Amino acid sequence: MGKTYSDYSEQELIIRCRKDDAKAQEMLYKRFYAYAMAIGVRYCINRDDALEAVNDAFVKLFKTIKTFEDTKLIKPWFRQIVVNSAIDNRRKNLKHTLVADIEQTDEPVADAQIISKINAQDILDILKDLPEMYRVVFNLYEIDGYTHEEIADILEMPSSTSRVYLSRAKDRMRKLVKAHFYLNYERAI
């Protein structure tokens, strides 16, 4: 019995996708769907928007896969496509999103014991509570490693604005951590 598509390596699937093999495209889609959605939901308002961005990213992937360099890893290349697709899909709304100023306070950062109890899912939940522009800039800078200059190019804004949004996102996250976890911590004591 011969190899099934699920037995192929990523490289073998890429080679077959370059030949417009629909079954290989389906298998590559299945392999990278969860990875792509995890990226998409960080940049989009809801799952439907993320799904749209992910599907757009796959269309772009299959259109450009012939230009993919074999010496590179496909996941980082595809991640870039997903991020760009999510941002492209949100760009119009991002430009029109009004961001309320956060009043500056001298409140101390939450207690170290509280911070030590926060897990990755808690942080993702807090990110969902940020205004959209704050969340996008935070994701691009802190999670995906873009520079402020790159973010400025992607979002068509001055790099100083990117820095302001990142600072405000961090301030808002501190407040949200304190609001969500400090109260629960106090009740538990």
Describe what this molecule looks like in 3D.
The chain is mainly α. It has 2 domains: 1-96, Rna Polymerase Sigma Factor, Chain: A (Orthogonal Bundle), CATH 1.10.1740.10; 99-189, Arc Repressor Mutant, subunit A. Helices cover 72% and strands 0% of the residues. The chain contains 9 helices and no strands. The chain has helices spanning 10-18, 22-43, 47-64, 74-96, 112-116, 120-128, 132-143, 148-155, 159-188. Helix 1 crosses helix 2 (22-43), helix 2 crosses helix 3 (47-64) and helix 7 (132-143) crosses helix 9. It is elongated and about 60 Å long. Residues 98-110 have low confidence and may be disordered.
Q: Can you identify the CATH superfamily of the largest domain?
A: RNA polymerase sigma factor, region 2, helix turn helix motif
Average pLDDT reading: 80
The end-to-end distance, rounded to whole angstroms, is: 63 Å
Percentage of residues in strands? under 5%
Question: At CATH's second level, what is the architecture of the largest domain?
Answer: Orthogonal Bundle
How many structurally independent domains?
A: 2
Unreliable segments (pLDDT under 50, ≥5 consecutive)?
98-110
Radius of gyration: 20 Å
Record field, number of beta strands: 0
User: How many strands, which pairing sense, and closed or not: the largest β-sheet?
Assistant: none
CATH class of the largest domain: Mainly Alpha
Helicity range: over 70%
Order of helices and strands: HHHHHHHHH
Instruction: Write down the overall geometry.
Output: elongated
